[in-house]
């Protein structure tokens, strides 16, 4: 229901763009938003920032009609909107690229994109020719025609491709967009797509569209944003011009304190080889040789589809190994299944938290303790007390924002869900910890905490393999960087040699050599 | 074969692709991998029983099979739609029974007007389907429970209005006789009804945006909702369709048996229709399935049942054989997928 | 609270002084025959001023035990039961005896000391009101043989279709008796057992397949466990182009056969054994009442009348056709 | 005689509200929201029928109810486990039937050794369960189809070995008599078996890591696999457990009815057990459910059935009333959630 008249103080009444006015939202006992008044002007990129769980996604959901605010209202160019459904918002020209892509598994990319407004001729006949025309044109227009085959089924898409589908959905439609919200769009994209996306955002801005951009990556914020709005605990902590602020000021605004430094620089790598991979070949990667020493942090870098995640899954026992050997602590492993890998001392925090890691209906406690139950149990009975202590410890260390560790993971914000995934594996302390995009969607404060924990684990002798598409993270964390392309390693850089340019050069080594594009569209090989 | 699969989804790789080029591959693609194995199983069954008794493949017997599967086939077709939506309708059999007594009783009490009888049955069916949908959507009752409840309740209503007796006698009326024994172009009227219904639903699912929306709803209801599809309208319509076609099945039941049957002949149809849909490739989670697959499964089950009876195999062996063949058909079909044997198959 | 059973008749039941409460437990309580039986039992109880509760047991032997226990917990003075399976009989007898409730069976026999009434000492058979399955089958078989002879068919080109649900024991008894009686009168006609689900459409589909398997047959005899089987068989035969003159169907129940006859068209349904559940229901309640009120002993067995009817006689015999 | 009360008049109107802060919150939390509504419905049913007929709440009748639900209760308990894993076992009834005839036939043929009879039945049950699991996992057959096939096949086997007849007579044996009529501490032996089984499974699910893993598998099988859980071992074990407990139910069936029953008494148990599990809060997609909820649902359904019979309501009205009450119970329970009425409810 809309707020009672007369409306509260600052009247964004006539201000153009998309506005929230006195918006509050409660979920049961959780007050996700409290009296938020913000305006997103047209032709500008406004970054929306805040810690995990600050209420960013919730605000976007309200602006796009997916949630009804408990109080307050939404205005477009000063006109109050009555948004009862996402469709109402779509019709008003308000679009969102949600944090978690929603993909329909058994239909094609083309249908995924235009679901709800499929082209049709008389008698509601689906116009397949027009559908193809549209998707081809739109893919080309947005610059994604190389990375997304429109005939792929939803269930066959990679995380990045899923994200692209969501972007396509938002960009298309009968009513031209007036305001577009991106909820952490880059968290599963790599540099290449990010560039295309930024170009796209630039165009949107030029077309006079109000762009809302949510991200935890500072670099992007300063690269893109005109204005920055910061939420803290569901309230507006401040609105600043991007040009008039800097990183540390922003962090202070977001977390209410200073963060000394993000990355912990240390040299604790030893000579003891923990992981030794020789000529590993699976269905997706070939001839990989790789070593990680105790206390060493090795980063796997590369572009989308380079095969890093596939390598990680193979090391975690989840992809059949065709040839080559994997040794851990000098012992050859037979990685039949993830169980074998975990028993041997390998832990993998996978990249897609919802699909591969989380039990959404279960509590934080349950999700955290799952792989540590072996040491929490006696006679197979789990010690509730120890379990609670363990989950609480990591929830506190990672600053998981939730009413309690008994909250269902389903109700957490995206970043907090990611922290739960990490908590599970940090709690187990394996000999080799593989972290696939560990800070995806995690706020800067928690990032610092995660980096600290990685450093601590390294100091305790854990070998760490990090997969990250965020180059600053790769550069900041790694003692050594291995770059991959097309399922092969193309080079290795020490910390001293590593620069963004050097990494990118290796990541595109083949293409530079042959002059082809970075990646063939997937799917047409089958 | 192929490059990779995202770890979250180990899918069968041979999905029929919408809008792929034609040629002989086009036909194969249209039939689809799942269906291909069903065709294989069907051929095997026909070859087996045809060798044992050549009469099995006579045109007469093929018609017998087609007629025998009509009622469960109709229900399987609508069950397919409901399952693709992500739902389930366990009350179809009871709805058919209620429609059957309704048609006979209205027929009798209106002085033998077949159209009123049939119309009333279809109206009741649509109303019940609508009611099912409303209970599920607005009562927020899980579809399985809601229609389980309907299974009991509608059967009770049918028994109450009929006092548990077979009602009326309709085979004095030419319309019902036509439904029951008539032929068009050499094929029984009943079988035509099944063919037409199946063709209509197939066209709906494949060639219209309505059908595509149905797949979207079952595949990911959040995505469908965010795309502006009116989930409630679709889901309630799916149940209403299911009720209407179940009522049609009930009318055929009346025509076949000559009187309105409250329970006899309609009990167990729910399981048969779900079996056929599942065997035909419907995934019970929703979002996947096809009328072609379902019809093939219906034909396979019908041929099997008929063949076993033709061979004079007793009821007990028939049960064993049916179970065993059902499992065998699926195992053979899955062998081709070479899916990793970890966890529950979809 | 155990103890082996010894005697079927129960002398330990004391006459009841107050209002009499009787529970009538029926298998397949949603079938027309049993619905009729229950209706008439209720009417009779109302007339006698007794309290009667009717319980449907379905085909569930386990539910039978539960419902007997429940009736006893409700302090019923007398139980009349049609068991879904005679094997559950001893358990029922024991439970009733422990509670000192009078027990009468209707329709199907029950043995107090073992699962099979056929192998039961006469003294262990629980008093029963009803029809005899064996006798019913016999009548059906005899009538079918009469029709066969009347038509003057040749055994060589005739087949008998026996349709029944093969896991229902009483069905098997009926069909077997019919076969024996027919065979005695007309030896040498080949019989085909058709496994049905006791529904008209189920029977129709199965019989249609059976016709496929036997293409050369000219004349058909059909019987089964109930009218549904025979009607389904007759319909399938007629749909396969067999003339009604070449079909000798004898129903059991007459409630579906009567519909064919009422239509006035020639039908392969030549006759049907009319068994009236109403008679059984009323007689059973009366018998129980007499026992509980007046201490009158149960008769060992009392039969309600059965009657073979056909297209010309069914109305006068009182078959009601809804 | 029959009081034909309209079903809607019997709806439990007074659902207790969920636990607001303060008071004995611990207890409320332990019972859980879903269960709370079931408790409310149960209280309403008991109060209603108890007022109509005081005998309903007599200790005798309560025992009758408890005994009557034992067999379906046992199956509901294991069905809960299978459903939490994300599977379904539609063959439990047929398994119970096969176990029932096995127990009676082995008993008879070994010269009346009850332990051999019971042991053989349990062994057969475990073997069938294992077989189900293997077919599902290694044959890659969808659990619904595999156990539907089992429903037919195992019933056929039971009928074949028994020739479709009830087998043997066991109530001459003290062990079976004890199972059937014996009491321990005033409670029937059968009911004790249900209580013990339920308690053991509850402990397994709630207090052990095995239980955690079971919930994990049903909640997200990819994540479970990557967390190192041996899915296959768990799933096959769940089906084996299901088979064993179904066999136990079959043994009790033999004890109760006095002889081995191939079909009678076990047909329809699959639907009953799934109904109870679903009403008790199991989500058919897996990952959610509890033994407490299932038992409450079993008790509710049992009390309802008994109460309707005690009131002398005829079979037809019972069907209607059961359906209506089932839906009503869920609607009332859902009202509390205030979930938006869009799309299919979970
Ligand atoms: N459906 C829900 N039920 C209960 N609580 C919820 C629900 N959705 C969100 N919340 C809570 O609302 C708060 C705000 O969540 P929101 O998703 O808006 O955070 P966010 O700022 O987007 O965080 P992130 O950066 O991690 O994505 C969180 O405390 C979250 O737990
Ligand atoms: N579902 C799929 N269908 C077809 N090909 C796929 C699928 N998922 C991945 N691939 C292919 O597998 C290869 C490796 O992909 P993978 O996701 O492992 O890359 P990555 O280096 O981890 O990239 P990212 O940065 O996106 O994590 C690529 O060629 C990709 O196109
Ligand atoms: Mg968010
Ligand atoms: Mg990856």
UniProtKB/TrEMBL annotation, chain A:
GO terms for molecular function: ATP binding. Residues 1-22 are annotated as: Disordered. Residues 1-14 have a biased composition (Pro residues). The keyword Nuclease does not apply. The keyword DNA damage does not apply. InterPro entries: AAA+_ATPase (IPR003593), ABC_carbohydrate_import_ATPase (IPR050107), ABC_transporter-like_ATP-bd (IPR003439), ABC_transporter-like_CS (IPR017871), P-loop_NTPase (IPR027417). Keywords: ATP-binding, Cell membrane, Membrane, Nucleotide-binding, Repeat, Sugar transport, Translocase, Transport. Residues 18-511 form the ABC transporter domain. PANTHER family: CARBOHYDRATE TRANSPORT ATP-BINDING PROTEIN MG119-RELATED (PTHR43790), D-ALLOSE IMPORT ATP-BINDING PROTEIN ALSA-RELATED (PTHR43790:SF3). This is Sugar ABC transporter ATP-binding protein.
From TrEMBL, chains B, D:
CDD domains: TM_PBP1_transp_AraH_like. The chain crosses the membrane at residues 27-52, 64-84, 115-138, 184-205, 234-255, 315-332. It is a multi-pass membrane protein. Keywords: Cell membrane, Membrane, Transmembrane, Transmembrane helix. The keyword Transmembrane applies. It is found in: Cell membrane. Residues 1-24 are annotated as: Disordered. PANTHER family: ABC TRANSPORTER PERMEASE PROTEIN YPHD-RELATED-RELATED, RIBOSE IMPORT PERMEASE PROTEIN RBSC. This is ABC transporter permease. It comes from Kitasatospora cystarginea.
